[in-house]
């Protein structure tokens, strides 16, 4: 009994010290990168394959969660997965893009700009393979609304909720629970069927707006600030009506699922646009030249 209790205490302690913000689960990142692959130019596709480590087998999607596996080995990279805000539904780079020590640019927006610049610059000291895997992962993360959640609850991580009957937290609901429930209920637990459904939406339901997804007025190197601003706004809606120990079920699920699917689609389309811009080639997408 004593040992069991100790084990329990240790497990709780481990859970409590879990990272401030996780990431789309493996599925979310995989889907973002799979969708991106389908929008790459031939030149970009070749360049990406050459940069990927051997274990990825030439598939960008296989390498899309690598950044999560190194976030403890590369401790400095941990704050690069998110950009929390004070909760005013807006993202302000100067105010919000820093780590807990106040070092500037240490957030997901800064990271996307940084690794995009590194991949464009052949004299960059960064390992290009790692830059590519970081970029592909962070473009996914920035589209998960709770990665631009509120600072005081660590992007929803400290808001304990019940997802139907299971214990979860608000951040995890958006990282994995919505996707898992959708896969189970609608896609026969088959990831490729869900990816196909999202791709079909891109060419049909979202065909008109899709062209706008990768354009922005920002003069920064990428449009990452815009993506964070969108997520910060969506995060505010995600928090609505949610309190400690809230039970989230069908109502919440059916409101969240279309948002999750669209964010995965936008992440994929935009990642492809960024990579096409870096590696060149004639793109199917309309990419701003500036
Ligand atoms: Zn992440």
Your description of this structure?
The protein is mostly helical and 290 residues long. It has a single domain, classed as P1 Nuclease, CATH 1.10.575. It is 54% helix and 4% strand. It has helices spanning 2-16, 26-38, 42-51, 66-69, 93-96, 108-120, 128-142, 170-186, 191-203, 207-213, 224-239, 250-279; strands at 160-163, 166-169, 246-248. A 3-stranded mixed beta sheet has the order 2-1-3. Helix 2 crosses helix 9 (191-203) and helix 2 crosses helix 12. The longest helix has 30 residues, at 250-279. The radius of gyration is 19 Å and the shape is globular. It starts with a helix and ends in an 11-residue tail after the last helix. The structure holds zinc ion. Zinc ion is lined by residues 23, 67-68, 81, 137, 141.
**Biggest sheet: strand arrangement:** 2-1-3
Query: Taking Cα atoms only, what radius of gyration do you get, to the nearest Å?
Result: 19 Å
How far the N terminus sits from the C terminus, by CA atoms, comes to 65 Å
Number of helices: 12
CATH topology category name: P1 Nuclease
The CATH architecture: Orthogonal Bundle
Q: Which hetero ligands occur in this complex?
A: zinc ion
Return residue spans where pLDDT drops below 50 for at least 5 consecutive residues: 1-21, 285-290
Largest sheet, described in full? 3 strands, mixed
Mean pLDDT, rounded to whole units?
89
* General form: globular
The CATH homologous superfamily name equals P1 Nuclease
CATH class: Mainly Alpha
What count of domains describes the coordinates?
A: 1
SSE class:
mainly alpha
Instruction: Give the SSE order as H and E letters.
Output: HHHHHHHEEHHHHEH
Protein name: Aspergillus nuclease S1
GO molecular function: metal ion binding; nucleic acid binding; RNA endonuclease activity; single-stranded DNA endodeoxyribonuclease activity
Signal peptide: 1-25
Catalytic activity: Endonucleolytic cleavage to 5'-phosphomononucleotide and 5'-phosphooligonucleotide end-products
């Amino acid at each position: 009994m004593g040992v069991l209790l100790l084990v329990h205490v240790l497990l709780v302690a481990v859970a409590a010290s879990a990272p401030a913000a996780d990431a789309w689960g493996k599925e979310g990142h995989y889907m973002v990168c799979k969708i991106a692959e389908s929008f790459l130019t031939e030149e970009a596709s070749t360049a990406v394959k050459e940069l990927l480590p051997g274990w990825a087998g030439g598939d960008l999607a296989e390498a899309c969660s690598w950044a999560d596996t190194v976030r403890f080995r590369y401790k400095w990279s941990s704050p690069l997965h998110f950009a929390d805000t004070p909760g005013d539904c807006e993202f302000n780079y100067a105010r919000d893009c820093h780590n807990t020590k106040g070092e500037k640019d240490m957030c997901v927006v800064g990271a996307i700009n940084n690794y995009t610049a590194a991949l464009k610059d052949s004299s960059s000291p960064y390992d290009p393979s790692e830059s590519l895997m970081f970029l592909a992962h962070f473009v996914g993360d920035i589209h998960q609304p709770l990665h631009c959640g509120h600072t005081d609850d660590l992007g929803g991580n400290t808001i304990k909720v019940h997802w139907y009957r299971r214990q979860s937290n608000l951040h995890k609901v958006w990282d994995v629970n919505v996707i898992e429930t959708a896969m189970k209920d609608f896609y026969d637990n088959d990831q490729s069927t869900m990816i196909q459904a999202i791709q079909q939406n891109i060419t049909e339901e979202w065909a008109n707006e899709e062209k706008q997804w990768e354009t922005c007025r920002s003069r920064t190197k990428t449009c990452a600030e815009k993506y964070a601003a969108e997520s910060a706004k969506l995060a505010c809606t995600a928090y609505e009506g949610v309190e400690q120990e809230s039970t989230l079920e069908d109502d919440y699920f059916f409101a969240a699922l279309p948002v999750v699917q669209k964010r995965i689609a936008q992440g994929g389309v935009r990642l492809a646009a960024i990579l096409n811009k870096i590696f060149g080639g004639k793109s199917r997408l309309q990419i701003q030249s500036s």
